Each structure stands twice: as C-alpha cells, then as structure tokens.
Amino acid sequence: MAGASSKTDPQLLLSHKFPEAAFAYTERDAALYALGVGACGRDPLDADELKYVYHENGQQFIKVLPTFAALFPLQSLPDGLCFPGLQYDPQLLLHGQQYIELYKPLSSSAHLQHKVSLAGLHDKGKAAVVEVETKSFDQASGELLCMNRSTAYLRGAGGFSKSSQPFSYSNYPPNQVRAVKIPKDKPFSVFEDCSQPSQALLYRLSGDYNPLHSDPMIAKIAGFSRPILHGLCTLGFAVRAIIKCICRGDPDLVKSILGKFLLHVYPGETLVTEMWVEGSRVIYQTRVKARNRIVLSGFVELHRWTSSL
Ligand SMILES: CCC/C=C/C(=O)SCCNC(=O)CCNC(=O)[C@H](O)C(C)(C)COP(=O)([O-])OP(=O)([O-])OC[C@H]1O[C@@H](n2cnc3c(N)ncnc32)[C@H](O)[C@@H]1OP(=O)([O-])[O-]
After folding, report:
1. Which end of the chain is more exposed for a tag (fewer CB within 10 A), N or C?
2. How many CA atoms lie within 13 A of 33 on its CB side?
3. Where's the MaoC-like domain (predicted)?
C-alpha cells in the first residue's frame, strides 16, 4: 500500500502529545456565531432565534447554540491543523465529519481549558482520515463541558500503509457513533433556509480563517469553482432547523450531534433539512435545493422528547 505519502510516519502521529490550550469566549462571540449560522437571517423578529443574539424580554444572558461547541477544536490547536508525521497538502483538506457531546448547556461566556488527543487515523488510499478529540473543561471548576471529535479528510495523503491491510487506528469503540440510516418514509419535518452569498465571509469571523472559504484562487486550486461554505456552518444551519422544528426552540434539549459532510455547499445556496424522529434521536439530512444533492447527514440525540412537544 506504500504510495504517494510513503514519507508519512503514522507512529509519530500516534505518539504525538498535543499541548493543552486555554481559551475564553464572550457573549459577543456566541452572538456572532449565531448570525454566522443564519440565526434570524430570514426574520430579525424570529421568536425562536432572537434569544441567540439579543437579551430578549429582559433575559440576563443570550442563549448559546449547541453547535457553538464545534468551534472549540480549532481554538484548541494553536499550531493549526498540523499533524506531525503526516504528509499532506493543507489546500486539499476537507472537513469530513463532526461529532459533539454536550454535558451541560453552554453558558454565554466562559474560560475553558482544552485537552486534545488523536482519536483516529485511517488510510483510505486516495486520502488519509484524521480524527482529533477535544475535551473542553471549565477552567475554574475543572468540570468537563463538552467533547468534539473532528474528522479531517486529507485528499492525496493516503497510501501510507506498510502492509496489505490499510492502516486504521481508533481510540473509541466503533459502535459509539452508530452510522446513520436515512428512513424511507416521509420526514417528520422539513425546513428550508437560504444561506447568504456572504455567509462564509461572516462565519469565518468565528475563527476558521481557512482561505478555501474566502479566496477564489485558493478555492480553484482546491478544485471548486468558487469559495465554499464551512462544513460547520452547514451543520449549524441543520441543527438550528432541528431545534426550531423538533425542540420548539429549546437548544438545551440537545445532547449530542453527528454530522457527516457529503458534498460541498456554495454560499448563497438554499438548504433543505429533512428530519425523522426515532425515539430520542432525530435523524436528518440536508440537501442543496437547486442541485438536489445531499450535502450533510447525521443525527441529533435529545435529552428528552415527547410527541406532545
Ligand atoms: C477540519 C476543519 C477545516 C474545515 C474545512 C471545511 O469546512 S471544508 C467544507 C466542508 N466539507 C466538505 O465540503 C466535504 C464534503 N464531502 C465530500 O466532498 C466528499 O464526501 C469527500 C471528498 C470528503 C469524500 O468523497 P470521496 O468520493 O473521495 O470518498 P468515497 O465515497 O470514495 O470514500 C472513500 C473513503 O472515505 C470515507 N469517507 C467518505 N466521505 C467521508 C467523510 N465525509 N468523512 C470521513 N470519511 C469519509 C469512506 O467511508 C470511504 O472509506 P471506506 O468505506 O473505503 O473505508
């Protein structure tokens, strides 16, 4: 299996110790993020969403969308997406998947301590798949607040296996994140939302400044006709739709989230999210309306849900 990336040394990456990182955010960051994933984008009076950006009805703090937690992994890697021992072209990196567990609702400001470790490394031949786990703790109390598992799909970086069996390492049981099977029946709910042509330019201000999302030349080198939307921005749109349609606007019902990025989205495209309820789990998929292509699928696990909600 040795190939283009034979300079890659998986053992070096497996033994790498990522440094801990401290990070603080304020209400302004949480509100900017909410606008970046389209909150109040269609209606500034939206009764379900004003609370993410404004102290509505005298509320003391704004509410924080659960997908805000997905920003923590990038902030926890001060050296960026640098993986010692792995040869790859950063311009060909795509976000493959995101898994988030929330152990309590996020407060509107916090001082955090992030602990990062390698969760997985897989040789897919034409690509390498790297999974990074970030645990975020409240700095003062030491309480674990959330965990992210971020998957990067590194095109052109596969083919580093030394034996006929493709290299594959995971630090978690394979059944922990069950694969999503989209039901055949009619969705329980469908929500349509327009991303803005400037969506990626707004979203990047939440901390992901990868030029793939803003620079036309870099986007072309990466194989796209123009800058594409951040995967986590699309995920933010989808989970916001689920909170609106299934959770009756209550973001605190969300316990865990999985999103697999299946195809790129161009800013300005209309996103249609279809949802099915299976027990306490919402299965969803998001398609771009004009191209009729599924771009994202996954699940959202809820703390409690009854059909009377
Ligand atoms: C990180 C922060 C930076 C952010 C950047 C962005 O936001 S970028 C914007 C947001 N991101 C985007 O826009 C990316 C959108 N996604 C895509 O463009 C495509 O899904 C792809 C290019 C990632 C893979 O397509 P393809 O045709 O090359 O793949 P294939 O079907 O031939 O499968 C080959 C193997 O890879 C596996 N595998 C497949 N998909 C994924 C995945 N998502 N995830 C993980 N693994 C995946 C699949 O299971 C198979 O393994 P097996 O079964 O052989 O062991």
Report:
1. C
2. 27
3. 189-293
Do the Cβ atoms of 169 and 120 come closer than 8 Å? Answer: yes
134: tokens are 């970030």
Please indicate, yes or no, whether the overall pTM of this predicted structure exceeds 0.90. Answer: yes
How high is the ipTM of this complex?
0.98
Do 136 and 146 form a contact (C-beta atoms < 8 A)?
yes
Other beta carbons within 10 Å of 308: 4
- Give the distance (Å) from ligand 1 centre to CA of residue 5: 18
Ligand 1 centroid to residue 127 C-alpha, Å: 9
CB of 228 within 8 A of CB of 268? no
Active-site hit among 100, 228, 243, 283: 228
Say how many Å lie between the CA of residue 43 and the centre of ligand 1. Answer: 33
User: Which tokens in the block code for residue 131?
Assistant: 């999974």
Residue 8 and residue 157 in contact, taking contact as beta carbons nearer than 8 Å: yes
